[in-house]
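Q: Can someone sanity-check these two? First one:
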Amino acid sequence: MQLYRDDGVVLRTQKLGEADHIITVLARKTGKVRAVAKGVRRTRSRFGARLEPFTHVDLLLYQGRSLDTITQAEVIRSYGAPLTADYPRYTAGVAMLETAERFTPEEKEPTLRQFLLLIGGLRTLGESDHDPRLVLDAYLLRSLAVAGYAPVLDECARCGRKDRLPAFAIPAGGVVCANCRPPGAASPGPAAVALMTALLRGDWGTADQTERRHQIECSGLVAAYLQWHLEHSIRSLRHVERV
């Protein structure tokens, strides 16, 4: 059987039988991998807590027909401790993991940019003083950009007009002018759109100074835009505190 080594972030675990787990990992070189960790639920398991979500691990695996098998696991860095101690950070982190998995639907297709984005997002979430909701929204917007779905925020997404952009139309791909506005488009305040722009650019000076009501409006737009493009709901978003 072919052995290979890679490092990745544990996204999810599922019970298998009486003692095993199926571990879903977003790996640096391989992409999304689903692999069996045998005996991980036993008290004397050699894996211990090394294969828990939020953990960046170095893995040695061998290929199987349907699932690979983890034979070695060493922790590179665990991002879980500062998140599990703080509910808003934890829920934001869970939403990041779920989003990363949704953006990598095919197994073993390399997605280095999504991997690096997840590492950076978890690090910022655990170490910075930024509001967890802002960190999550920045991560979601950048994940969309990496996937080719960045919202258009500085001109009409349909005709290219640069001024008087009163609406945000998700199917159109961003802000639109009055002439191009479709039925059902949202009417966000300019500050909410400016916050989305700041989060995409990494302008934390602007983002941190934005009023809470505009942050909430921005979060709603980002969540709706994300889930429309994924064609799937992100279940963990319902637990993120947005008020």
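And here is the second, same format, sequence then tokens:
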Amino acid sequence: MHRQERLRFARELYAVHSQIFSGVSFERFVSHVLEPTAECTKIQVYRDFAGKLVGYCAFHRFAREFDGRRTIVLRAEAGLLPKYRGKAIAHWFGMLGALKEKLRHPFLHVIYFGTLVHPSSYRFFCKYFPDVFPRHGAEALPTTFRTAIELAESFGDPTVDPRDPLIREVGWITKNTLEHPALISDDALYDIHYFETRNPGYSKGHGLVVMVPVTFSNVGQAIITRVTEAILGWIRRRPARL
């Protein structure tokens, strides 16, 4: 894209983003989503049948080094208008993108790093990935905690309270939307409660630092769980369609 095309595209994305989130200027949105200091950025957009943009998912790859070990760090931002949620469209883009990175670099340390600003995002990771940090009832190695803090510092989001360095000032505030059934199911309550207790200021734009190891077993289990869920959902809907 030349400059004017990129600007039009950025404004189109930001118009949808502003219906989902507040607290982020156009300039900051562009620097995070379209023009981060990443080795690679891919953006998938979602449109309705009339061609109107209804959502996006940006996927980034960064290079870092920890204890002399080269590490690939994956990050993402996503937004989808409420009417079009529930089909895991952006989730598939992210999961398959992570798997592709691991396949390209099977012997490197690959992790997803996020500062999550809503319980639904945290619930997604806990639901599909067996290995997530931090997690209710799961002890983490000191090296894992140290890596999380180093990553958070490298991306520049300041701490909210020095007593808990995993809570960061992100500024992205999710606007009120109807709760998805997945957030009010019995098996989601522990994850939602943990997130809201650990990060009570998420409605003010505070984010919880989360790391997910991108290993073949972790991502593979996530894909298997999601495929199984989709098949069972199709089976349950089939009698109604018939």
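A (reply): Looked at the second one. Residues 216-241 form the longest helix (26 residues). The mean pLDDT is 88.
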